[in-house]
Amino acid sequence: MRMYEDPxxxxxxxxxxxxxxxxxxxxxxxxxSRWSRATAWWESERVRAARGEESAGSGGELAAEREVWRVxxxxxxxxxxxxxxxxxxxxxxxxxxxxx
Length: 100
Known about the structure:
Order of helices and strands: EEEEHEEE
Number of strands: 7
Structural class: mainly beta
Mean pLDDT: 87
Shape: elongated
Oligomer: single chain
Largest sheet: 7 strands, antiparallel
């Protein structure tokens, strides 16, 4: 498994249908699983500001939730398993992991 935090563009219609990663369009063939987890609140803009660290954001949620989808996707003959993630309520999708 290779870990990433690459921003991606996802067509979402109740579930991910397709996404663009590194200029490649990948079509979702199958959703393997879906789960949610709490984000790292200690890394939030508000906590950094409270510690006196420079902050570029507007504050944001302390206890946001991240939704993760593990999907099988591909384009033509190439297929793989990918983890797509976003903060619940936002459209800030990232490619989180690729399984070999």
